[in-house]
Amino acid sequence: MARSSMRCLVRGELRKVLLQGANWAVPVAAVGVGFVAGSAAGEVATGLGPFQVAIDTYRAFAAAAVGVVVLAVSARLSAVEYQEGTIRVVLARGVGRLRLLLAKAIAVVVVALPVLALVAIAGLVVVPVRLQGQAAPVVWGDVQVAALTVTLSAAACCLLGVAAGAAGRSMTFAMAVAAGFFPLDNFLGYVLPILQNATQERIWSDLTTYLLGPTLNHLPAVLMGRRAGELIPPQLPVDAAHSLLVVAGYAVAVSAAAAVMVRRRDTLE
Amino acid sequence: MSAATCRPRFGLLVRGELRKLALQRANWLLMGLAVVAAAVAGLILSTSSGIWHAEGAYRAALQTDPGYWVHGVVVVAGMIVRIVEGALLLFAAARLVGTEYSAGTIRVVLARGVGRVRLLTAKLAALVVFGLAVTAVFLVASAVFGLLMVAAQGGSPQHVVSIMPASEWHDMGIHLLAILISAGACVLIGVAGAAVFRSLPLAMVVAVGFFPLDNLLAGSRDSNVYQLGVNLNVLPETLGHMRESIFARPAQPVDATHSLVVIAAYCAVFLLAAYLPTWRRDVRE
Could you list the residue range(s) of the whole structural domain that residue A186 is in? Predict the structure, then answer.
């Protein structure tokens, strides 16, 4: 029996994304979460120039909104096969487990690209509207950093969602991880400094520099070299190399965990 | 035998739901994790030197001012129990209601003549019993933790208890009340999320995401005085406790009546959100 080509597999996964009715409700939730994140970042950006406030607020909105879409789609797509038991049908057709996982990850990237493009085009409208006719020079460096960090954040979300579905093999687990990872991560970024104050031990502050959420929150400020409107940052100053290494470390760890779990464990679902 | 006599009694329904709660391994796992997390956090916070602005004197306060030392432990224990018990009950409630729909077992139960609203009420009653049991476990664990702390730091538990002022017992009562109110709100959020979406994954998303989003949205907006998370955060304070909440706070000072009315309004909305779709929508899952 002929093995399906990777292109066919990705097309199949894209069909699943498009035909799952629940996925069409995700953008509504994403805009809501993005709005909350954007307004929280906007409060922190007080005191910056008008363009900086507008771009930082929109960047926080975009990162959160794209993140919600990518997390939800990737977690659902990778877990639904186990939940419905259809994974056995697909595997029985000669598709390798790792190959299927890779096809799902590629399908999520294909979904994420137009979402990123749409958010970027919307930004071209929203940021000038937010400036409300104020004379503010456009800083293209800030725009590039915003695009880069939103893309990096989306990539991290994609890996996290796919890994949660593949490792947990349960829709409930995958969705709980997708919904809970970043809130918990940011919560730790808030609680660890409190522990540091209470215990006077530096280790708690050090730990905040290794959290994915706060690192992603703070990455634009690090790359732009200025204060930025952002959600909870790491407690101690970090440089760009450290931040990028932390994000890369999480990406490698999450991908490796998913690949090992998928490769080693037999599919009994 | 008529259909009426076949219908399971309410007590039996509640017992059935309690069995489900007891037999779900994830609940025990979460309970274990919650106790461990609470113990570790409590150990770190209550043995630290700088806690509650004690400026290095907190550990020594057990000898010099045991009432103050107990106060610090009570504050820490109250806060931690509210957080971990709330998380545990959110998940348990979402799972108890959501699983029936996701696994399709709701049709089996309804086919036995149990009404949808009656089943939901039984689940709520079971969750109340479960919540009270969890609270009791955490209270006992907190008491054991406190006594171990006293013993480890060379104090005498009898001496500490005997010199504790009446205001400290009152404080403990306020913490207990805040824990119970917070637990009730968490149960209702979990149940409402599952009853509205009729899906375990979505119920879990609501359970996991509600409070982080609520706290994030709170910021320092004037309107945050009407948010549930903010009012629950400061409930021990508004009820009469002197310590400040470390989480999102109301933009303007609020009193106990305000906090309780806001929390009651949210609870009423969650109840309606749970009962209306259950009552009106047919079950096709």
Answer: 6-264
